[in-house]
Amino acid sequence: MGQKSVIRSGVINVRAHPNSPEVYRKLIRQAYKLKVANKLRGDRYAVISLLQKDLVDDKFVQGVLTTFTRIDERSDWFDLENLEEASGEKVAQISIPENLFPNPKSFYFLFNIQTHRLHLQTWSRRDTISVRDATKMFSRLFSNPKISSKFGDVKVTMVQSSQSLERIFSIKRISKVTIKIERPNADVFDDGFEERIQQHLAATGSRQFEVSYTAERGGNVNVNEDIRMVSNSALANGKVDVEGQGEAGKEKRSTSDHPEIRQRKYDADDQTEAQALRDLARD
Hints:
27% of the residues lie in helices and 35% in strands. It is α+β, with helices and mostly antiparallel strands. Strands 1, 2, 3, 4, 7, 8, 11 and 16 form an eight-stranded antiparallel β-sheet that branches. Strands 13-12-14-15 form a four-stranded antiparallel β-sheet. A two-stranded antiparallel ribbon has the order 5-6.
């Protein structure tokens, strides 16, 4: 028995129209071919640095997301030897090739072209990536004009934990519940409720559905089965925000603070990180 390691992943829901596996395969390949880096957070940027040519099986496209630091050469520089801002003369000596960037970190991902869920490794060799930041990055990537001209308005949302609803609804007194749902794809649902939302948004030419429940003054919103049904739809296609009164006073909670994080142990002597991620995505 070899050394046990842990693989962790977050899940991102990608939605395009028309909704088909072939569309999603073409979408991720087009995004890779762009070789465009998009902002992740602060001075960190990310790019799809590798995409497997063939499907892992009939479901998954495998790739690598690499993050790096983008240095603004126009910013001020600090001279550590003299403990002062570097002079213009010294800064002028700095020459970094335009295609080179420091501090790279790489993370595997698997894109399920049937469920349009992207499973992203969030921890590797003590390096981490936030699935929330990655969701924003992929949203920027798929909003590139060269993508949108072929695939239209591609919607990207972070899949949130199913336990997050219990966490946000456990506030002592709920004064307001706000549910946002981006236009979903009806194929991923078990009943007709979300499909009706999709049809309603399509018929009204809208991309987002929002509903709020506000308690009577000093009262409490009764989170019944109807509210939970709508809220469940938002976990993969939007978010749920709650305002209320907690033990320490006024509180705001959101399902967007609780991404769905999956993890499992694997034998590092028998499996690579990529193979472990495939097993995790299939669970």
